[in-house]
Specification:
The complex is a heterodimer of chains A (112) and B (109). With 112 residues, chain A is an all-beta fold. Chain A has strands at residues 5-7, 10-13, 19-24, 31-37, 43-50, 53-56, 65-68, 75-79, 88-95, 102-103, 107-111. In chain A, strands 2, 4, 5, 6, 9, 10 and 11 form a 7-stranded mixed beta sheet that branches. Chain B is an all-beta fold and 109 residues long. In chain B, strands 2, 5, 6, 9, 10 and 11 form a 6-stranded mixed beta sheet that branches. Chain B has a 3-stranded antiparallel beta sheet with strand order 3-8-7, with no helix packed on it. The chains are: A mainly beta (112), B mainly beta (109).
């Protein structure tokens, strides 16, 4: 089992561009969680998805951010029109049901 | 509001010395507490959870509901314990993890 995969590991975008972050859960896991970590801070919950459903997006900024977890393929966190404040590490975790969450290596987004 | 506090950003101890990483939480319900560890250039991984009452890599943590704490302890630190340690809270019947800001543990030779 390869574990949770995230790509890219590092992403550089200029202000106004779009960022797409991908997360492939562990085999057998159908629950995906996205977290954001700003420098010097702990992880902050963003969104919880199951296949084809957003269960809880209470941690997502209201604008520019969206997430999906299609029937086939990875979960995608999409940030439109990025700003410097979006620079952070974005972590994805997966679980079976709502059990222990296993984390990916993260995507470090840098907005210039 | 629910909160997890790790008061030490950085903790530096000598090899062989005891280690205690502090974690306090704020939650009135039935919490589930976790310690996650992130070694250099590796992903976050679960170290232990209070409901398991286990010892992993020599670390233990006891949930103290009276003091709302879940401190992580190890009697004799080893150099390979150097890492970032995060305390996390899961509220009953909920899936969200509330995270502390983390403590960087450095074990000096």
């Amino acid at each position: 089992n390869a574990g949770v995969m995230q790509n890219p590991r590092h992403l550089v975008r200029r202000r106004g561009q779009e960022a797409r972050l991908r997360c492939s859960p562990m085999k057998g896991h159908s629950h995906v969680y996205w977290y954001r970590q700003l420098p010097e801070e702990g992880l902050k919950f963003m969104v919880y998805l199951q296949k084809e459903n957003i269960i809880d997006e209470s941690g997502m900024p209201k604008e520019r951010f969206s997430a999906e977890f299609p029937k086939e393929g990875p979960s995608i966190l999409r940030i439109q029109q990025v700003v410097r404040g979006d620079s952070a590490a974005y972590f994805c975790a997966s679980s079976r049901f709502q059990e222990t969450q296993y984390f990916g290596p993260g995507t470090r987004l840098l907005v210039l | 509001a629910q909160r997890v506090t790790q008061p030490e950003k950085l903790l530096s101890v000598f090899k062989g010395a005891p280690v205690e990483l502090k974690c306090n939480y704020s939650y009135s319900g039935s919490p589930e507490l976790f310690w996650y560890v992130q070694y250099s250039r590796q992903r976050l991984q679960l170290l232990l959870r209070h409901i398991s009452r286990e010892s992993i890599k020599g670390f233990t943590a006891d949930l103290n509901k009276g003091e709302t704490s879940f401190h992580l302890k190890k009697p004799f630190a080893q150099e390979e314990d150097s890492a970032m340690y995060y305390c996390a809270l899961k509220m009953d019947s909920n899936y969200q993890l509330i995270w502390g800001a983390g403590t960087k543990l450095i074990i000096k030779p």
